[in-house]
Every structure is written in C-alpha cells, then in structure tokens.
Amino acid sequence: MNEAEQAELFNKELDALLEGGQAPAFAPDQGAMDLAAELARMDFSGESAIKEGLRRRLAGEAGSLLPALRALFSNNYARTAFAAALVVIALLPLARRQEADPPAAPAGLTAELPPVPVLPLPARLPEPPVAARPAGALFASIPMPRLEAEPIKEFPIARAGAGLELALAEGRPITQGAGPGIVLETESAPFPIERRTIEPGDLFERRVL
Amino acid sequence: MDFAELYDRYFNKVYNYVRYHVRLAAEADDVTGKVFEAALKGFGGFDQGRGPEQAWLFGIARNAVIDWARARGRRGEVSLDDSPEPVSGEERLDAALERKEEKALILEAVAGLDERARDIIALKFSSGMNNREIAKLTGLGESNVGIIIFRAVKKMQGEIEAKRKL
Fold first, then answer.
1. Best residue in B157, B163, B165 to probe A by mutation, most A CBs within 10 Å?
2. By the 8 A CB rule, do B151 and B162 touch?
C-alpha cells in the first residue's frame, strides 16, 4: 500500500470517527489513528475566560441599531438606492424654485419688435396639484395649467360680415430673426404673430422628474 | 439562524481552531473575540446561498489568525502555567495534571508543523468541515488535503512518542 492509498484509507476512517465517534481500526498504522482520535476529543474551550462575557456584549450590540444599519449598507444595491434618494432630496428645492419662476419669452421675438403696450397679466392662478400631472412625463407645460384654469374668453377678432364688430385695425408685416411675422393691432391690444420653426424647448420647460 | 445561535454553536469550535495556532489562552481569547466581532459586523450581509455559515465563519477565523501572526511576528509560546487549573472538585489532581500535560504535548506537536499543515489540522479537528470543504476554503485539492492530514498526524505521532520516551 503506497502513501496515497494509506492516506485515503486513513481519511476515510477518520471521517467515520469524526462523524460517529466510533474507534476505527486503521491496520497500517494504529498509532496515527489513535492520535487522530485524541485530537478529535481535544477541547480547549473550557480555558476561555471570555465566552459568556463576549456573548453578552455581542448580544447587546446585535440588538442595537448600528449592526442593522451596517448590514443594510453592506449591500451595494442598498447603498446605491440610498445615494440616489439623497441626490433627489438635495435637488428637490431647486426643481421647485424653477417651477415657481415665470416662463421666459421666446428668444428673438422681442428683439426687433416695436414697443408694444404691456398687457396686464392675469392674476396668478393656483397651480394644479402635482398628483394631477402625468407620471413620468419628461416635459411639463408651464403655461397650460394656468390657461386651463382660466375661463374661456371671446377672441376680439371676428370674421367680417358676421354681424359682429370688426376689431382688426391694422396688420403690419415685420421680419423676425427666424422668418417673417406680422403684428395685428386691434382696438384692445396688439398681437405679434410670428412664423418660424419651433422646438419643444420653446414651448415647454425641460424637467427631469 | 440569529447571531446568538451562531455564537453558541460555533464558539467552542472557533476557540479550538484559534488555540491550535495561538497557544496562549489569553491571546486565543483576544483573537476569538475579534473573530466574533467581525462576524457580527458581517452577519447581516452573510448570504447562506453562497455557502454554509461554517465556511464563512472559519474564513473570518483564518484571517484573524493571519492578522495576529503578522502583528506578533512570531508564534505563541507554550506555558503550562498559562492554562487555568481545572474547576471540577471531583476530579483528581493527578488526572487533571496528566490531561493538561497531554494537551500541552499535543499543542507543542501541532506547533512543530509547518503553517499550512497546522492550519489544515486545526480546521479538520475543530471546525467539523470535511476534506472537500477544507479544500474549498484553503484553495487546495481535496486529495492534497487528505495527504497533508495523514502526513501531519504521522509527524506529530513521531514527535509525541519521542517526547514520551524521554
């Protein structure tokens, strides 16, 4: 029997000893198996002076919040989610401030226009609740909620011959930066009309929700 | 399984494993304490699907022993005076002393092994893991683990017999 075979037999009998506690008969070398049996019985734990004290201390720590938090943040997904939540909370006031600002006039429209009388702005209407907005929308219309809340008004220009008062006084063509335009002046107010290609960003404010 | 259950089930095994490496009882207590403190920190993140808790805990114990050995830069020294006296009043003093000397003799023989063999003997006789699990933990082959155990026991046997004859 070579060494590898002896080792295999020895380990087989040793495993049986460790599992069942039976004293095996290792024919090639009984002394080695006796020593292994002695090692299997060996227990130094009675010499430990900390067993109970350490148990009490660790049990106290295990019941506290700190290990639970440590355990929670040992997970990469939990760490990432927590960081994302912090970023959202930090940016929330900024998003609300942008929402409160009035929408800017389209660029290029006011540059070459003749001075027109300033229309009195309607009183600011309360904005619809956040829950009313479509969830996950990338673009949020700024003026539309206000317009929707206002009562529908009669437009002052009517078709000629309809029996209504013709309010159109003058139409003056103008040139805008991006194309031709016209200013219609009525009795009550001038209406600059511009013809140009627009982007979604001209009408909507981009928000990351 | 909660942490208290893990502690109760494995304290003796971990202590015995540590003691095969760290032969002074007080130092073995320190190292064992560090093992369970580290285990408590990692217990919430322990995933049983990735392996049994036994292998996970003894992985921590192995690292703690390696850290201790690096910090000390030397092995623990044998001292019969270091072991506490048995507390049982019924036990005869000569039998207790004989057992104490026997333990010291075995620890001395284990200390005479090279580091790898000592670690495998400590795992085999304290952790309850089989050769396949030990092989997985240590990165060795299963048959290699078996041969190391056989050779180590034979070597220890020779040393112990030689000392008994003196």
1. B157
2. no
Q: What share of chain A is helix, strand, coil (3-state, %, to 5)?
A: 45, 10, 45
Q: What is residue A134's DSSP assignment?
A: P
The pLDDT tens digits of the residues spanning A85-105 come to: 888 888 888 777 766 655 555
pTM: 0.58
Encode pLDDT of B4-34 as tens digits: 889 999 999 999 999 999 978 899 999 999 9
Question: In a 3-state reduction of DSSP, which class is residue B69?
Answer: helix
Residue A35 carries which side chain, given as an amino acid letter?
L
Q: In this predicted model, what pLDDT tens digit does every residue of B90-117 receive, in sequence order?
A: 556 677 777 788 888 899 999 999 999 9
| Partner residue facing A67 (CB), from B4, B44, B128 | B44
Q: What is the largest CA-CA distance in chain A?
A: 125
Q: Quick one: closest CA in B to A60, which residue?
A: B4
Structure tokens at B110: 């284990």
Are A61 and B40 a contacting pair, CB within 8 Å? Answer: yes
Beta bridge partners of A207: none
Whether the complex's predicted ipTM surpasses the cut of 0.90: no
Do B113 and B159 touch, CB atoms closer than 8 A?
no
> Which tokens hold the place of A65?
């919040």
CA B93 to chain CA centroid, Å, is: 26
Annotate B99-140 with DSSP letters as a single string: HHHHHHHHHHHHHTS-HHHHHHHHHHHHT---HHHHHHHHT-
